[in-house]
What we know:
Two copies of one chain form a homodimer.
Chain A: E1 9-10, E2 35-42, E3 45-46, E4 50-53, E5 57-59, H1 64-68, E6 71-73, E7 76-80, E8 86-89, H2 91-104, H3 112-125, E9 137-146, E10 159-168, E11 176-180, H4 199-213, E12 218-222, E13 229-233, E14 237-242, E15 245-248, H5 259-270, E16 275-277, E17 280-281, H6 282-290, E18 294-301, E19 305-314, E20 317-320, H7 328-340, E21 351-353
Parallel strand pairs in A: 1-4, 11-12, 11-19, 15-16
Antiparallel strand pairs in A: 2-3, 2-4, 2-10, 6-9, 7-8, 7-9, 8-21, 9-10, 12-13, 13-17, 14-15, 14-18, 18-19, 19-20
The complex binds pyridoxal-5'-phosphate (2 copies).
Amino acid sequence: MDTSVKNLIVEKIKSSKIGQVDFDNLPFGDVFTDHMMVCDYKNGSWGTPKIIPYQPLTLDPSARVFHYGQAVFEGMKAYKDDKGQAWLFRPDENFRRINKSCVRLAIPEFPEEYFFDSLKTLLRLDVEWIKPGEGNTLYVRPFVIATQPGVIAAPSEEYKFMIICSPAKSYYGGEVRVKIAEKFSRAADGGFGFAKAAGNYAGQFYPTKLAKEEGFQQIVWTDSSTHEYIEEAGTMNVFVRIGDKLLTCPTSDRILDGVTRKSVIALARDQGIEVEIRPIKVAELLDATKNNTLKEMFGSGTAAVINPIQGFGYKGDKYELPKVENSYASRFKKQLTDIQYNRSEDKYGWRYKI
Amino acid sequence: MDTSVKNLIVEKIKSSKIGQVDFDNLPFGDVFTDHMMVCDYKNGSWGTPKIIPYQPLTLDPSARVFHYGQAVFEGMKAYKDDKGQAWLFRPDENFRRINKSCVRLAIPEFPEEYFFDSLKTLLRLDVEWIKPGEGNTLYVRPFVIATQPGVIAAPSEEYKFMIICSPAKSYYGGEVRVKIAEKFSRAADGGFGFAKAAGNYAGQFYPTKLAKEEGFQQIVWTDSSTHEYIEEAGTMNVFVRIGDKLLTCPTSDRILDGVTRKSVIALARDQGIEVEIRPIKVAELLDATKNNTLKEMFGSGTAAVINPIQGFGYKGDKYELPKVENSYASRFKKQLTDIQYNRSEDKYGWRYKI
Ligand SMILES: Cc1ncc(COP(=O)(O)O)c(C=O)c1O
Ligand SMILES: Cc1ncc(COP(=O)(O)O)c(C=O)c1O
């Protein structure tokens, strides 16, 4: 793709704050780069995208995002290879998905050239913030918020599309044990769980807080109608390995169609691993624990890439997973990061040069 | 309740903008009074509430409300009687409910004295914005937003509790026909539909837009598991009159426990109207239409008070309701507004003097 950055306004910072940043001690999502992208929607169309110094937003207290949650976002990562070239991983998927989220939230879709042109320009400008070396990434957060003033529950006629970037190490540390949801739910059938909508996240905080008090780090959500089928975790899709088979549930209007998930499925199938995409009953997990056929569980998502799950809790009982040699989790994590950091061939065309 | 407004900072506007407002032509929720209340949560506690001139907010682009929808709100109305005294309607219910919403969204609860002290002070300061006369009200919007910067899906440690006020005429104009949801849903079992959380509203915009294209003004949501039972409308609870019986569905974790709803139930029972609070099947509505026993449907909510529903659509068919004499809808609307405007005895203690 060519960077014919027409109609893009760039206002550079006077002096970079990069010198003040301790790149070895970065709490996830806390530090932001020098610039950000802003594009305003007004009078029925998206205006000129602007790259400007990272700065606060000024909004009316009645802006709709505060009252009605009309907001969507994306999350992707930029990587730097050993030669100093920066890459994104499948940003076309994130672009498609944010527009899918927009449609469901009654937000006008964002033009493709605006997205890629401004994304590239922003990342090139802040390229020093992408550090080479395993685990170093730049987390890129496109998002859209409804800015029109007015406390009336109706779609906004004004929006801001923004991209902010945060240098990051890996997201989850330590061992992860999950609680399988028995009562609380993340998304409704016919709702918008498939969208990366702001409103899907805050509702998970309280149940997750309760789960943490029981010694779990995350919740694996189940379907809201019966709580019999596992769905996904807070910000990860979930995979289960039973015997040598890899299982994951189908995406639906309740479940986010994860980029990492679809990449894992492609990698697995290419390596002759049998992948079953079908509803997974909690009962099946429990049976597999008894039979000793439940070998692995892991989450997949941009932030953590692959996150092994050591155990789970369900109806008061706790289950530990065995330690396996040559786990699928570590294999896929290596294969994905090798592609992301340009250490291996990219036969799928997933790398996107910045 | 006494107004011992300790610890409240008041900064008044220099000159009021009230003279520029056309009170006869007020689009709902568009114009705001001279002052607003702001109270910040930081380092584990709520600070001193401040009444300050209505003004924009400045927030970091990574503030959690923009990304994770951690935000709740309330809606209530102030009325002025013919003697110039201003009143609120059951604000204790709104206070209790916003804290219930806070808990579910992992937001710290707000202290009762802070709420009532600052509310009273604010409304007394802006009392000229409450106009006497039927239909004139001041819509009062308390809300809480997560302000801590950081793109990590975890509860914020900083919040703003605010109250803004907007003079209003009645909310819905004209006839309302509703579409009964067949596919889309508003809330999940085990979710947070019962909370007045920002995230519950934006998800309704797109389905409502589609319903509008079919000639309806609102959607009546059904349960997300079977779509067989009616639940509530966008910002209203729903009542059905079959014969002379009044029906409304029970509140649940999917349904907002409306203040107007509980007031209607109390009024109805006191007048000897039989009220059944139980799940209502769509099939029952269809049967009642055939038998000519479906006499009325109406919504109840702060914005509209009582909103008669003239007809509904379901699976491609449209149903019109008969015009009834002495409708329950108009009776309850009159009784409620008589209490609200201090035109009748307040035997329930619902009026709250400002
Ligand atoms: C709810 C949810 N599920 C799954 C994922 C994983 O998606 P992806 O692999 O595209 O990051 C995410 C996002 O990161 C998410 O928010
Ligand atoms: C979803 C929903 N249902 C019902 C209502 C009615 O509640 P109340 O009568 O307290 O205004 C509202 C709010 O106004 C609402 O947002």
